[in-house]
Automatic annotation (TrEMBL):
GO terms for molecular function: lyase activity. Transmembrane segments: none annotated. Pfam families: PEP_mutase. Keywords: Lyase. It comes from the Bacteria. The keyword Lyase applies. This is Isocitrate lyase/phosphoenolpyruvate mutase family protein. The keyword Cell inner membrane does not apply.
């Protein structure tokens, strides 16, 4: 496949991924962290595959929070993107870079890996700077991501994560202020983890002019309820990866402590997994 063919394929996948973001009919993303989980998500009927940066880091032996080397993260994304038929969007944490130029390099790596979307969060890298980056600083990083993708001719979906609610650094108004700045810098969507209550989600959905992404887990409203509030994207974040690791711990403790195996009941059959992973996509 030539470079031009690759760009065309990425361009088409990026357009297809963009079209999945519809307020009121949200794109639902059970986040994956390796090829096996991505194939399972694909087989379950997902329209796209999203990585969880935390789950991916844990799978590669690193802690979450920009502690994973960029090349390792992008290598894992490349394996997933090459192994599924669906569009892939990559959670790239803070961009795996200290400055906007580094974020642009990361985005070029994301495109080379075959992904057509990114999440970029605005959490500050040093605690003494406060929980979040300055709005202007984060806007520069988003603009760098946008420019790198545009220069490559790929309409990468840049999902700007606003961590005001998650970090206790502001309310709805502060979130909307950041969202507007990130939108002006080139973001295609706004991701607000920590926003699940209808009284919070509704003004956010009404207040941004791009697709709103929320993160769900136990206690959050059902997808249908979030859809009625105007949400365009629903993701599980690291929740499924945490649940999988919880099962490992529970099964290990049961086996070691009581010598029983009830935790393993209902597992996916080996033949199913072999079939899912038996060939290239």
């Amino acid at each position: 496949m030539t470079t031009d063919d690759t760009a065309t394929t990425l361009h088409d996948r990026a357009l297809a991924f963009r079209a999945l973001h519809v307020p009121g009919r949200p794109l639902v993303l059970p986040n994956a962290w390796d090829l096996a989980s991505a194939r399972i998500v694909e087989d379950a009927g997902a329209a796209a595959v999203a990585t969880t940066s935390a789950g991916l880091a844990w799978a590669l032996g690193a802690a979450d929070g920009d502690r994973l080397e960029r090349d390792a993260a992008l290598g894992a994304v490349a394996v997933i993107a090459a192994g599924v038929r669906l569009p892939v969007t990559a959670d790239i944490e803070r961009g795996y870079a200290r400055d906007p130029e580094g974020v642009a390099d990361t985005v070029r790596g994301v495109l080379a890996a075959g992904a057509v979307g990114v999440n970029i969060e605005d959490t500050a890298p040093e605690p003494d700077r406060g929980p979040l980056r300055a709005v202007s600083e984060q806007a520069e990083r988003i603009a760098a991501a946008r420019e790198a993708a545009d220069a490559a001719g790929v309409p990468l979906f840049v999902n700007a994560r606003v961590d005001t609610l998650l970090r206790g650094a502001g309310g709805v108004d502060d979130t909307l202020e950041r969202a507007a700045a990130y939108r002006a810098a080139g973001a295609d969507g706004i991701f607000v983890p920590g926003a699940v209550e209808p009284g919070t989600v509704k003004p956010l959905a009404d207040g941004v002019d791009v697709p709103l992404n929320v993160m769900v887990g136990p206690g959050a409203p059902p997808v249908a309820e979030l859809a009625a509030l105007g949400v365009a994207r629903v993701s599980a974040g690291a929740g499924i990866a945490r649940a999988a690791h919880t099962l490992v711990r529970r099964a290990a403790r049961e086996l070691l402590d009581t010598g029983t195996y009830d935790t393993l009941a209902g597992s996916i059959d080996s033949g199913e997994l072999n079939a899912l992973l038996g060939g290239a996509r």
